[in-house]
Design a protein that fits this description.
With 118 residues, the protein is an alpha/beta fold. The chain is built from four helices and five strands, in the order E-H-E-H-H-E-E-H-E. It has a single domain, classed as Rossmann fold, CATH 3.40.50. Strands 3-2-1-4-5 form a five-stranded parallel sheet, covered by helices on one side. Helix 1 crosses helix 2. The protein starts with 6 loop residues before the first strand and ends in a 5-residue tail after the last strand.
Length: 118
């Protein structure tokens, strides 16, 4: 892989949102997954909140590079060049995400797992 064209971030909390924002700010589209799609949508809205001390997205245009999904829509992982997993350190959640993502992820897609708190 020469360059990243699409990143999938599983976990739409503060850390997952920040990671998705990092890629979007650098022009790389990101898919952001959370337990429910509305939680991923709220995460993206919070990234552009003008009242935030430090907004994580530089522009509203960058927010359009982040697409929200629920974890039931993980088939989008097949289109990713990289997967970043940042779900809470709750074994039932981690095992469920691992089972679903492993089934869809081919071995050529790098997977990064980061610890996150609940």
């Amino acid at each position: 892989m020469d360059e990243l064209k699409h990143v999938a971030v599983i976990g739409g909390g503060i850390m997952g949102g920040g990671i998705a924002a990092f890629f979007a700010n650098n022009g790389i589209p990101a898919s952001l997954f959370d337990i429910e799609k509305k939680l991923a949508i709220n995460c993206i809205k919070n990234l552009t909140d003008p009242k935030a001390r430090i907004p994580l997205l530089y522009t509203q245009k960058n927010a359009r590079l982040i697409k929200p999904y629920s974890v039931e829509e993980l088939e989008v992982l097949k289109d990713a060049d990289m997967i970043v997993e940042v779900v809470p350190e709750v074994m039932d959640i981690k095992k469920d995400i691992d089972r679903k993502s492993t089934r869809l992820n081919s071995s050529h897609i790098p997977l990064s797992r980061m610890p996150s708190s609940a």
